[in-house]
């Protein structure tokens, strides 16, 4: 066991660096035993390091005894080992490894960390495309087994790619916004009153009282706007005590939130948000092509398409498209999930984009703090954004006038006492502002064309799952 | 009220751009009324935008009537207004404004958002240095009044600077780690079992069961290491149900967390963490000098000093220094807060640094998952890091062997059933690894030499405060 006893001079070479350039060099490598196969006086190992792997050969001869070959053959899969070996060019490409042109002729082996003999799931099964599994009758791994054994499931090339790409989304989001002059803020998650009326909120025991988990950072983003930060963003957990067991709902997810003061029109903000998403899509396609292709191997999917500038449709236009497709909907009716998806297909056919903005939602289907449209009292200055026909962002110009906010709250039958602090935030001069919240896991899922949000949350939380 | 009725062509000029280069131009500016003072046929306004302000003059004449001067004089402080005016060079510098060489001769005024007439606190009082206040008997603002009216308190030049710098800390932390090849992860905050034994944990009602708020992302960081991400970081809320009412404890704070697999020695990780902090300190001193100076005006403080490479002392060396200074302490006794501070002063005197690492803590004072020192069974492979004599990071090599982890847990009297999932994470091959967690608010506070952590949390949470 490595207990930091020594600081040896030994350099460990990355598996990804084992190429013909290193041919005939003696190297040390630390990697996992992905597979091992003994064959007479030889043992073939596949050594894996993240998404890379290389073939290693232990053969009875000058550097290895019969015992060593046997020892190598008996190391449990997933154990971490250090091997010393010579890099040898191979005559025939090794199709099953990422390092196809070389193999490692092993001289020494040390076990760094031994895995237990029985693995709860096999990595090869876990990356097998579903269709192939059905067709050939070969095993795949179901969602619960994956999640119950997440530490192993996350080692697959697909999982490694998904979460590296997700890290990239966060990075691109912040990089873009910091370049646009935004300030990052940190908002509290424990709050004294349920922010949006009290439904779907988790209760926390807070010393001798009760408190709640924030369903969104919206109030705090808005307070920062009232405090002159002008353009703010935050990335943090968002909690929804909703008993929804669907492919796209989690009880805890990561919100990428934006709020921004504008000069004259909330479209200034809509454009900034849409451009931020476009910069994310572009950045992913430029910097994460390997990851996208890795995921596509298991989950084939059309590349994500988007326009510049982003397509913006008004709600009434969407209604017309849906009606033309035979859907009956009232002017002030919200989109159902199937209608959202249908609309996504219609928009894709007509405009060839997987990303668009739906603007000017009916006032009746939006929260009380949504600014009404001054030109049409039944509409509002609010918008959703969609990827592959599913909502990833909801936003609006917020009412910044305490008088109008009070009227709107009363109209919605909201107890003014409960939102007093919210309304009071706007009493000492508040700039006009708008914003929105993006669900990180949904963006990852829909960009990659995956079908379950549990694939894009490291440790997902839903009404039935709190572990690991 | 701006309800996004129009998209006018008008350009709003930033207050910070009002310089002699713009002399004699007609400009539109949106800003807050910081002060107004009527004097016969004239009214002087100070217009403020974030940390910048400019003098504006409304005088009876060609462009302004007597009524307009009266109107201007009666606009409540903190209201947001749009003014059109001519930029005029002034003969004598205006000492009370950041834009000292020009003033604005106002031709038109519109109120964009009116503030209520009585402000709960005065911005000028809120930025007055405490000493001056006492000496001259002029008003300052106490902490609770500030926090109760945080939206106004955050508008002060000091608050604007503190939180812009804090945004910079997060940015520098991530920038450095992404350059070092780390992956950002998002860890769940709602967990099924109390991670560190059950004390000081908040309970959440989770549908029909109970759950808890994570006291640290440590288990999840470690699981990501066992899942081959190798180097991970996260920024997120950390919850401690500790009834501590001190200058440096919050019940919810922001953790900057790092975990990393290493090759041979945990000092590889210690060096990466220390270098990350050094890059943050350097970046702040390079990019945030204006903010540092702004905060120093209200809270004077020596510049933050650090060495490269970072000073690393062993615990026994620190004990010797304290004993030489007359402190009586046992070999396996933890540092008290006063002793920490004293040690900080002794280290500063001897080594001229405000930042150092204290390594090799007694095993007895560290959690069960801390790796014992193989050379000395009473010591451990663990470390804290200090800024100006206060702890900002605690970390260690973690036990990655399930057998030893079980032994250590039993030694600490921990119920194995409760940490089964934790121990099981290491059963399928776990690389040696170490890490640590940094408190964001403490880093901000101690870098700036502030004295209360509530000054560096946007909306602080402590046992007595859950609002706003």
Automatic annotation (TrEMBL), chains A, B:
Keyword terms: Acetylation, Aminoacyl-tRNA synthetase, ATP-binding, Cytoplasm, Ligase, Nucleotide-binding, Phosphoprotein, Protein biosynthesis
Signal peptide bounds: none
Enzyme Commission number(s) of this protein: 6.1.1.12
Gene Ontology CC terms, in alphabetical order: aminoacyl-tRNA synthetase multienzyme complex; cytosol
Localization terms from the record: Cytoplasm
Catalytic activity of the protein: tRNA(Asp) + L-aspartate + ATP = L-aspartyl-tRNA(Asp) + AMP + diphosphate
GO biological process, one term: aspartyl-tRNA aminoacylation
Record has Acetylation as a keyword: yes
Top EC class of this enzyme: ligase
Entry keyword Zinc: no
Gene3D superfamilies referenced in this protein's UniProt entry, alphabetically: Bira Bifunctional Protein, Domain 2, Nucleic acid-binding proteins
One of the record's GO molecular function terms: RNA binding
The Aminoacyl-transfer RNA synthetases class-II family profile domain, residue ranges: 163-468
Family under the similarity heading: Belongs to the class-II aminoacyl-tRNA synthetase family. Type 2 subfamily.
Role: Catalyzes the specific attachment of an amino acid to its cognate tRNA in a 2 step reaction: the amino acid (AA) is first activated by ATP to form AA-AMP and then transferred to the acceptor end of the tRNA.
Assembly: Homodimer. Part of a multisubunit complex that groups tRNA ligases for Arg (RARS1), Asp (DARS1), Gln (QARS1), Ile (IARS1), Leu (LARS1), Lys (KARS1), Met (MARS1) the bifunctional ligase for Glu and Pro (EPRS1) and the auxiliary subunits AIMP1/p43, AIMP2/p38 and EEF1E1/p18.
NCBIfam families documented for this protein: aspS_nondisc, PRK05159.1
Protein name: Aspartate--tRNA ligase, cytoplasmic
Source organism per UniProt: Pteropus alecto
């Amino acid at each position: 066991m490595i207990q930091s006893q020594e600081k040896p001079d030994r350099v460990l070479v990355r598996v990804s660096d084992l190429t013909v350039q290193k041919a005939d060099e003696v190297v040390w490598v630390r990697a996992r035993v992905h597979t091992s196969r003994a064959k007479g006086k030889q043992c073939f190992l596949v050594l894996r390091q993240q998404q890379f792997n290389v073939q290693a050969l232990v053969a009875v001869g000058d550097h290895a005894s019969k015992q060593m070959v046997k020892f190598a053959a008996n190391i449990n899969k997933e154990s971490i080992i250090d091997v010393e070996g010579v890099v040898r060019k191979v005559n025939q490409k090794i199709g099953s490894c990422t390092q196809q042109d070389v193999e490692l002729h092993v001289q020494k082996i040390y076990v760094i960390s031994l895995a237990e003999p029985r693995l709860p799931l096999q990595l090869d099964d876990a990356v097998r495309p579903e269709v192939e599994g059905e067709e050939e009758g070969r095993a795949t791994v179901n969602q619960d087994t994956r999640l119950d054994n997440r530490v192993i499931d996350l080692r697959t090339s697909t999982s490694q790619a998904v979460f590296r790409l997700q890290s990239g989304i966060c990075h691109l989001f912040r990089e873009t916004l910091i370049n646009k002059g935004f300030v990052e803020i940190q908002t509290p998650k424990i709050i004294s009153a349920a922010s949006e009326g009290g439904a779907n909120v988790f209760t926390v025991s807070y010393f001798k009282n009760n408190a709640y988990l924030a369903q969104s950072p919206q109030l705090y983003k808005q307070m920062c706007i009232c405090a002159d930060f002008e353009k703010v963003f935050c990335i943090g957990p968002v909690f929804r005590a909703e008993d929804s067991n669907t492919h796209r709902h989690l009880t805890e997810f990561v919100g990428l939130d934006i709020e921004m003061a504008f000069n004259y029109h909330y479209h200034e903000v809509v454009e900034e948000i849409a451009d931020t998403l476009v910069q994310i899509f572009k950045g992913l396609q430029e910097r994460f092509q390997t990851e996208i292709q890795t995921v596509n191997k298991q989950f084939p999917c059309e590349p994500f398409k988007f326009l510049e500038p982003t397509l913006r449709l008004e709600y009434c236009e969407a209604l017309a498209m849906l009606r033309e497709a035979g859907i009956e909907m009232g002017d002030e009716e919200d989109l159902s999930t199937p209608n959202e998806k249908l609309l996504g297909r219609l928009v894709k056919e007509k405009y060839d984009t997987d990303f668009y903005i739906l603007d000017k939602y009916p006032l009746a289907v939006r929260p009380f703090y949504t600014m009404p449209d001054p030109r049409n009292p039944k509409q509002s200055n609010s918008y959703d954004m969609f990827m592959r026909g599913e909502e990833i962002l909801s936003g609006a110009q917020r009412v910044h006038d305490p008088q109008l906010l009070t009227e709107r709250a009363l109209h919605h039958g909201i107890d003014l006492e409960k939102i007093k602090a919210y309304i009071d935030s706007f009493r000492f001069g508040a700039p006009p502002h708008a914003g929105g919240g993006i669900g990180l896991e949904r963006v990852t899922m829909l960009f990659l064309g995956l079908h379950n949000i549990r694939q894009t949350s490291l440790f997902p939380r839903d009404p039935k799952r709190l572990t690991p």
